[in-house]
Every structure is written in structure tokens, then in C-alpha cells.
Amino acid sequence: MNEKDSSKRTRRSSGAITLRDVAKLAGVAPITASRAINTPTSVSADVLRRVLEAVDRTGYVPNRMAGSLASSKSRLIAAVVPSTVMSVFMATIESLNNSLFDQGYQLMLGQSGYSAEREESLLEAIIGRRPDGIFLTGILPPGRARTRLLASGIPVVETWDLTPTPIDMLIGFSHTDIGRKVAEFLMKKGHRRMAIVRAEDERADRRTLAFQAALQQQAYPKALEVNVGASRSLKSGRDALGKILTKQPKVQAVFCSSDLLALGVVTEALARGMRVPQDLAVMGFGDVPFVQDMVPSLSTVRINGEQIGELAAKMLIARSEGLAVDARIMDVGFSIIERQST
User: According to CATH, where is 3.40.50.2300 located in the chain?
Assistant: First the structure.
């Protein structure tokens, strides 16, 4: 290896918190710390307390593959996604999986169900198995899970969002920009009375706030919001339009936080004898495969999920092999796709 190549390489384990660090902080020998973690009944209550406090302070997660050589690689990448059922993330997952497989890596997939508690539990299990990299959907907020990821030293790529302070690497786009651009698009179509159908999701929150801000800036009426909670089903979309029409019978346009909810809105509108888009314009989010074949076809926000998956695979493989990544933060943008529903 020449000097130039050597300068690009970094230790994969650089910065990782070890059992020795925990033992030092707790004031015990590494073997005692190991016993406290693996067989708590074999140490005194005072030692156990000190070791557990040190674990919490450092974010240390025991290496469940401790019997393997420190230099060995699992050739396993772990991914945590909210859902795979009729999901906007499917193109990203498939692209990530294919790109990894082509390079001799395997993908381990976990579903959080949009639950922060479940995501934290999944991440703890994943970190303990020491994969070569971790793929996350969205930005992990400050807290126990983020602390443990930072302490692990495992390469991490967060996706489908933007922040100036990622854990490690980031590939995404601005949800705030999407909310604003969709509002501007619908206003240009001549719609004033609008509504939003959205699921309970922090990213949907930001799109909604930006959408409302854009309307307010132009002195438009505030959009009526219907939050369907954790549900992202066709039925939820149908029920949501029913609520909207009860409160605002003359609504002209609806922006939905997913294409599946938008399909529900369109289905309910047609069932009530409404014309789409003449009586009601509908905009989705995600551009999942079925929406272009709907009647009417659905206008939506397209995210290049395949590109996100390919880039994430390249970044994680490079880092797992000790190579530096040139750009830690990548904005892949988005597109508004106009079809028959608007």
C-alpha cells in the first residue's frame, strides 16, 4: 500500500467505547466488569451499580461476537426502517440490498413500526452483534440510542432527511422544502380551501408546518388538518376525507402524507360522486409504483429511493473497509410529479 492510500484509511474501530473503558470508569478490573454485565449475580451490589452506571454514561453495548478476531468483518449491514408494507421505502431497501449483495455483503432488516421505543430496542440488539454498518431511515434524535451508536464506532448512514449534525453520514432531502413547494403548486392551480391528511410522524410534522406557513404567507386560509395517528391505510384516507367534508364541505385540494392515504381520499371522493380533480385535487407523497396506474393517476412527491440505497451502500462499504468518505452529507432533492389527480 502506498503512502497516499494509507492516508485515506482509518481504523474502523476508532473511537469505539470498550469494556476496558467501562471498567476504568467503574474502578474495577475488566474481568470484573465483564462478570457484572454477563452474570450480575456473581458480583456485589456495589460493583454492579458502578459498572451499570459506567455503561449508561459511556453508551457501551457488549459485543456479542467477542469470540471472533477484532480485525474480522461480518460482511453484514443492518437496516432499520419504519415499515415495508406498501412503503415509500421499498425502492431504497431493494436498491440497498442489491448494491450490498453485489459487493459480497448481506442486509439484515428490522422494522420499527414508527415507534421510537421499538427502534431503540432494535438498535441495541443490532449494535451488540457488531455489523459492518448501520442504515437508518430518518434522523435519530438525541437520547440513549444515539449515544450508543456514537459509542459503538460502527459506520452509520442516516437517510430520508437532512440535518447539519448527523451521527456519521447522511443522505436525504428537506421535508420543509417539500411542504412549501406542494403548497405553492396547489396555490398556482387556483385552490384556496385546502386540507391535509397526515399520519403521526415527525417528518410529516415538518411538511405540514411548512405547508401551513406557505399558505399563511400568501394570506390563504389555514388548511384543515386530519391526523390519522399511526394508521397509514386506505381506510384511514377514506375516513379522513369524510371528516374533512363534514367540517369543510367546499374543500378544493388535499395534501396527504403518503400515497396510500391519498388513494383512500381519492377512493372516498369517487364513492361520493365527486370528480377528481374538478371537484377535489389530491396530492400524495412517495410515488410508490401503483399510483401512476390509478384512475385518475395520482400527483405526488417523488423521492429517488434507488439513488439513496445505492449511495448508502457505497458509503457503508467504503467505511467498513477503512476508506474515508468524501461527502458526509448528501442532498438528493425531490420532484413534484403532476398527474391527473391535480
Answer: 76-173+305-333, 175-302
Secondary structure (DSSP) of 166-225: -SSEEEE--HHHHHHHHHHHHHHTT--SEEEEE-S-HHHHHHHHHHHHHHHHTTPPPPEE
Residues 17 and 60: beta-carbon distance below 8 Å = yes
Packing angle of the helix pair 30-38, 19-26 (nearest 10 deg): 100
pLDDT for res 113? 83
Residue 191: pLDDT over 80: yes
Phi then psi for residue 132, to 5 deg, are -75, -15
- Is the distance from CB of 147 to CB of 135 less than 8 angstroms? no
User: Does a cis peptide bond (omega within 30 degrees of 0) precede residue 296?
Assistant: yes
How does pLDDT run across 251-266, given as a tens digit for each residue?
Answer: 999 999 999 999 999 9
Structurally, at CATH architecture level, domain 175-302 sits in 3-Layer(aba) Sandwich (3.40)
| C-alpha 133: how far from chain center | 15
Let me know: does 268 contact 261? Beta carbons within 8 Å.
Answer: no
CA 156, 158, 161: angle at the middle one, nearest 5?
Answer: 165
Dist. CA 118–CA 338, nearest whole Å? 36
Is residue 254 within 8 A of residue 194, CB to CB? The reply is: yes
Which residues 6+ apart lie within 8 Å of 91 measured at CB?
305, 306, 309
Q: What is the pLDDT of residues 161-181, one digit of tens each?
A: 999 999 999 999 999 999 999
Mean pLDDT rounded to a whole number for the chain: 90
In CATH, which superfamily holds the domain spanning 76-173+305-333? Response regulator (3.40.50.2300)
pTM of the predicted protein model: 0.81
Cα–Cα distances in angstroms (integers) from residue 281 to residues 70, 77, 154, in the given order: 58, 41, 46
